Amino acid sequence: MKSIGILTSGGDAPGMNACIRAVVRYAVANGMTVFGIEKGYEGLINGDIREMNGRSVSDIIQRGGTILKTARCSEFATEAGMKKAAESMRARGIEGLVIIGGDGSFRGARELFELCGVPSAGIPGTIDNDLAYTDYTLGFDTAVNTVLSAINNLRDTMTSHDLANIVEVMGRHCGDIALFAGLAGGAETILIPEKPISEDEICENIMANKKKGKLSNIIVMAEGAGNAEALQKVIIERTGVQIRTTRLGHIQRGGTPSMADRILAARFAVRAVDLLLADDDLKVAKVVGIRNNKIVDEEYSVALARTNKGHEDLYKIAKVLCT
Ligand code: F6P
Whose CA is nearest to atom 3 of ligand 1? Predict the structure, then answer.
């Protein structure tokens, strides 16, 4: 393959820019022509496409967000939208795509291949770390560090006032941000969708901590694990402990990418471009990922069918250490 397009799709994640830079420079260094597509699949449909070179990606390695912009595109979910996207690519001689996004973006890429024969290599870019086929997604490490920094600040003031705090973090279906930030931040309680805990148990924990002389508690709660304000009310009513709620929201999605995310961006980019470079028959429909610190690739259908990444070990450790 000689000519590729690159797009970012779904929620943005720190490290996307570092990855765009790496894809463009590595592909150009290997004789490819690279086109940047604006706003994900929407830009593909509308023809918002421009040629990129090494200079188009200068000074972006350290920036959060995505210079290509991103969108969630409902038209692309239709057959007509997909055909339009494929035509607009072919009109510019683009043979395949690098798609940086999450599971929705990859499902779209798989359908684009099945319906219109468009080959692509997907790079997992989402802060949620909610793809079971890869140990880590791009942006997750930075987001967890952002949460950690917030927990550190909250601890200072909560400890000074003997107050508790529910820190609500992103993650509708996957509790990895809460689990990793909770363990690394020494949270007293971690609430994730994969491990529902009753209000009774949460209140018992707080009372047990009170007896031990632990008056300041940090509860890290994934947004998909319940309603933080409702829980705050229950805790105050049942335990008498003063507790506040902090929703970190989209702060977690921005920020300069960590070293780990920049390195991951480069490694993912090289594998994705290599897959397309070697794809003379235009048959590649794969994602890249990382397992046990080795870069891997897998068919979309195989990768997306995987479930249960499971961090049983980390969850158990967190439960002991929070005592
Ligand atoms: O998928 C990434 C994510 O940041 C989720 O953690 C969060 O639930 C969602 O996006 C928020 O999306 P939006 O910005 O569309 O509200």
Answer: 11
Ligand 1 within 6 A of CB of 182:
no
Q: Does residue 182 belong to any structural domain of this protein? A: yes
Last residue of a domain, one of 223, 254, 285: 254
**On the CB side of 137, how many CA atoms lie within 13 Å of its CA?**
29
| 321 occurs within a structural domain | no
Q: Is residue 106 part of a domain?
A: yes
Is residue 33 included in any domain, yes or no?
A: yes
Are residues 152 and 279 part of one domain? no
* Number of separate domains in the chain: 2
Q: State residue 95's pLDDT score.
A: 98
- In this structure, the answer to whether residues 11 and 102 fall within a common structural domain is yes
Protein residue closest via CA to atom 2 of ligand 1: 11
Query: What is d(CA 206, CA 92) in angstroms, rounded to the nearest whole number?
Result: 61
pLDDT given at position 309: 72
The 10s digit of each residue's pLDDT in 34-80 is 999 999 999 999 999 999 999 999 999 999 999 999 998 899 999 99
User: What's the one-letter identity of residue 58?
Assistant: S
Using a 6 Å cutoff on CB, does residue 171 contact ligand 1?
yes
Task: Give the integer Cα–Cα distance in Å for 133 and 304.
Answer: 7
Determine how many CB atoms are found less than 10 A away from the CB of residue 308. Answer: 8
Q: What is the pLDDT of residues 181-240, one digit of tens each?
A: 999 999 999 999 999 999 999 999 999 998 998 888 999 999 999 999 999 999 999 999
Rounded Cα distance between 311 and 315, Å, is 6
What pLDDT was estimated at residue 214? 86
Residues counted in the chain:
323
Question: pTM surpassing 0.85?
Answer: yes
